[in-house]
Amino acid sequence: MNRKVSVAPMMDCTDRHERFFLRLISKNTLLYTEMIVDEAINRGDTKKLLEFNINEKPVSLQLGGSSPKLLANAAKIGEDFGYDEINLNLGCPSKKVEKNKFGACLMKEPNLVADCLTEIQVKTSLPVTIKTRIGYDDVEDYETFYNFISKLKSTGIKTFIIHARKAMLGKFTPKQNLNIPPLKYDYVYKLKEDFKDQEIIINGGITSVDEIKSHLKKIDGVMIGRAAYHTPYLLADIEKEIFNNENIPSRQDVIEKLIPYIRDEIKKGTRLNQIMRHTLGLFHGQSGASYWKRYLSENMCVRDADVKKIDHIMDKIKYNNFDTRVGQSA
Hints:
Elements: E1 5-7, H1 16-25, E2 30-32, E3 36-37, H2 38-43, H3 46-50, E4 59-64, H4 68-81, E5 85-90, H5 95-99, H6 110-123, E6 128-133, H7 142-153, E7 159-163, H8 174-177, H9 185-194, E8 199-203, H10 209-216, E9 221-224, H11 226-230, H12 234-241, H13 251-267, H14 272-276, H15 289-299, H16 313-318
Parallel strand pairs: 1-2, 1-9, 2-4, 3-4, 4-5, 5-6, 6-7, 7-8, 8-9
């Protein structure tokens, strides 16, 4: 699987509508689900939780949990639904997640994590990967980080996605954990030097194609997060500059292709705002961007949005001075 560039799993962001939208822009970027708890998959409405459009592929299912049995069963269900990879979340720092014993707090229990990964790999034939931090609280020395990764490697895991910040458990909010702990890219570079045969993916604070190119000189892949959500057309530049794909859709093309999907989803009971909220940043940095955001916010990103508004959306793009040129991300 090509993991040269991927979009990070983000709660309340990378749902199936966001992934379909991003796939219209990028054919090569690997996409991830939001973190889905193993117990919810085992005991809840699996179709509602896991169903996705085949056009989203390749897509990875990120799981949260700490029970080897529940995680393994959830992974098998994910495989049956057609996901391309199973990823275990070892990086989420929220208090709620820690209370339920999954996410970054599991860095304290490498043996338990190893048991979980072993069971998952027994149950599924899919690639199994992990996403973790470089440390937690006051524990961020490289030796501890190395030993943690070494333990997980012993289970047969070959791909490690590293958010190059430590997690401050119970001290910072999830948002603060994305900004306050300093980035230590050198830890990830050193990890690649020490684990030459493993696939090492770097994550954290990466916002441009130039930064991606710089990281790719030292590691195997780059995962971008908030930049992909707030400025989604960045993926068009990634397609062109990283994947050498010259067949890039314009912003107008993306909306034109999104409309049939919207119509189908509305027939299934999806609300218009559940889809259109993901497109707010499509024209970021371009002529007409403020109008686009305002129009969506007032007409399509409210709970009771009139679905008939979608009939006129292309007129709004064509006649309000939107810059729809290809490959012009801010």
